[in-house]
């Protein structure tokens, strides 16, 4: 192990022991790049010099964690995914009197507001409870506010239309000079909460889980761990939606799910018990 690798190992262990944030299973190359970027912003020379401020200064740690993760997101990201959700998953959800949804790794919240809009338009919002989680308090705070720069609205509107939106996107926010403030009614049934998929436990009995563009930053072992968490959090026949570059196909859980729409990474948990292979992906 060279010195840089050793310093990274010590840093990750310090964060894990002190705060319970465990990055040891994140894909190492991109994690190293982001640690070095964070280091450059502090003006410190060596990675190991980050350890004291991380251990003794919670604000420093919070900012460092926020910088370690990629938060890129947008409204109706991959519009064809949202179209598929409307067409293939929503009809199934309509058969239930009450629906529980977990949107994991929401970043600044655009994904969960997109989902809330779909549920509203499909007449499902009032009987839904959406748990919207991320492990970064910094992004969760922005998500709770639901206020976004107006220069993103053009792209969001395009995505919304492409996703099969049934009204005008402008109905969901009001704009002042610089910000689009999303309708408070969209938040009514959303519970925003800090949850770490690596270390925290199951969310029970979900009908649908969205975890998009998060697992791409995890190594294979950690992905397996999180897929198991999702399996345990879903009802039989519940749906799991991943990001466009993510797949269940090489994971230990693959035989417990069916790919409903492979292209849009929409999977359904089999009704059967874990490990019993009724069909394969
Ligand atoms: C690239 S964003 C994805 C946002 C959104 N799901 C989308 O697809 O546009 C990844 C988010 O995952 C969060 N994240 C990373 N590791 C996590 C973990 N272990 N537990 C919870 N959230 C995590 C990050 O804080 C970040 O906000």
Please explain how this structure is put together.
The structure is a single chain. The protein is an alpha/beta fold. It has two domains: about 5-65; about 80-270, 3-Layer(aba) Sandwich (Rossmann fold). The chain is about 40% helix and about 20% strand. It has nine helices and ten strands. The strands form two sheets. A seven-stranded mixed sheet has the order 6-2-1-7-8-10-9. The longest helix has 17 residues, at about 5-20. The radius of gyration is 20 Å and the shape is globular. About 35% of the residues are buried. Residues about 275-280 have low confidence and may be disordered. S-adenosylmethionine binds near residues 105, 111 and 198.
Percentage of residues in strands: 15-25%
How many DSSP helices? 9
Portion of residues in helices? 25-40%
Bound compounds, please?
S-adenosylmethionine
CATH superfamily of the largest domain: Vaccinia Virus protein VP39
Distance between the termini: 39 Å
Radius of gyration (CA) equals 20 Å
Tally of individual domains: 2
